Amino acid sequence: MTPKRQTGTKKQIKLAVAKLFQEKSFEEISVTMICRQANINRGTFYLHYLDKFDLMDKIKDETLADIKAIITDQEALFTKKVINKALHYIIDDFEFIFAIAKSNYINFPASIREFLEVLMSTSPNTDQELEKHYQIPLHYAKISYIASLEAIISEWISRLYNFCSG
């Protein structure tokens, strides 16, 4: 199987999961359902993933890694162009991102908070700026800041879904 074909199969699987999430919870979805929706056989699925949990973990990790790569581009760190590119990535893959956002297995708010912590660790002077702005111990300043950003991201995704589907 060529790498291009593998990428196509993985994309089919990802789209199938997103479609299934429109009707069912993660717990209700089986590998058989994913295979039927993706129009692949189970053997093909198992060439790429151990099970549905491995599928979700890998796709979540790939998605967050892609967004992190966009945002941490050293050529244009946090410029309007980079933020715009990250938002377009989310919009282009929105059906799946919304699907994982509502999955209990993924725990989207916790995943976003972890992602933001890693992202903040790559940005110089973050600690000093947070302490200066919040004027509370750094640990609590980070929690406040990250929780605020996670709430904004979650709300934006929810509103975007309502806008697109309504």
Write the layout of secondary structure elements.
Elements: H1 3-21, H2 31-38, H3 42-48, H4 52-71, H5 80-92, H6 94-101, H7 108-121, H8 126-134, H9 138-165
Protein described:
With 166 residues, this protein is mainly alpha-helical. 76% of the residues lie in helices and 0% in strands. The chain is built from nine helices and no strands.
Features:
mainly alpha; 76% helix; 0% strand; AcrR family transcriptional regulator; Homeodomain-like_sf; HTH-type_Tx_Regulator; DNA-binding
Strand content: under 5%
Number of helices: 9
Oligomerization status of the protein chains: single chain
Helix-strand string: HHHHHHHHH
User: What would you report as the Rg, rounded to the nearest angstrom?
Assistant: 18 Å
Rounded mean pLDDT score = 84
User: What form results from the Cα inertia axes?
Assistant: elongated
| Class by alpha and beta content | mainly alpha
First-to-last CA distance = 40 Å
> Considering DSSP H and I runs of 4 or more, what fraction of the residues is helical?
over 70%
Contiguous low-pLDDT stretches (5 residues minimum) are none
The strand count comes to 0
- What composes the largest sheet? none
Domain HTH tetR-type: 7-67
Protein name: AcrR family transcriptional regulator
DNA-binding region: 30-49
Keywords: DNA-binding
